[in-house]
Amino acid sequence: VASLLGISRTPIRKAIARLAYDGLLSQEKGKMARVSVISGQDFQHYIKLRKVLEVFAAEEAATLVTDKTISLLEVLMQSQKKAIEDNDMYMYIDLDSQFHLKIAEISGNNKLQDFIEQINNQLTRYLVLSGKLSESAEKAYEEHLKIIEALKERDAQKAGEAIDLHINNVERLS
User: Fold this and answer.
1) Which terminus of the chain is more exposed, N or C, with fewer CB under 10 A?
2) Where does the pLDDT of residue 18 fall: very low under 50, low under 70, confident under 90, or very high at 90 and above?
């Protein structure tokens, strides 16, 4: 790969190590790196972690959110609605990720944001491969609006419950 790109092996090794760390590649000593597989059990483990972390993030965010940030979330939802209407699932996935990471960012906890990003990257792979993403997109969009509504009200409990329901539905539809 390095010779094809005309670069040294070091950046390639670092990129492979990062992908392995993120769980996207599996790498055994002396063997080639391979794209890692996500089993149904892995999915269940990731979704349980996601639920705990994102409920916490939403509850924290509800106490810290600003009107400006709520406006940003609403703009994301307008774009997400258009992606659904255009059946652009790649754009939808990107916007969904931005939405969830923005809530984690609002919580003010950078480590929480990193963990949520890593878990959601794994779950996104599973959801894309399941082929059910387009079926659940509209429902997820509606649930996102309810999460925003709870954040607008600065209601931590309601925000946590709304994101818990959302993640439960993602799990059920997968």
Assistant:
1) N
2) confident
Q: Give the separation between CA 45 and CA 49, rounded to whole angstroms.
A: 6
H, E, C per residue of 72-128: HHHHHHHHHHHHHHCCCHHHHHHHHHHHHHHHHHHCCCHHHHHHHHHHHHHHHHHHH
Q: Output the 3-class SS for 47-62.
A: HHHHHHHHHHHHHHHH
The Cα–Cα gap between 42 and 46 comes to 6
Of 96, 162, 77, nearest to 134 by C-alpha is 96
CA dihedral (108, 56, 149, 161) in degrees, to 10, reads 180
Residue 160 — very low, low, confident or very high, per pLDDT cuts 50/70/90? Answer: very high
Q: What is the pTM of this model?
A: 0.82
pLDDT, tens digit, 9 for 90 and up, residues 84-102: 999 999 999 999 999 999 9
The CA distance from 49 to 102, in Å, is 18
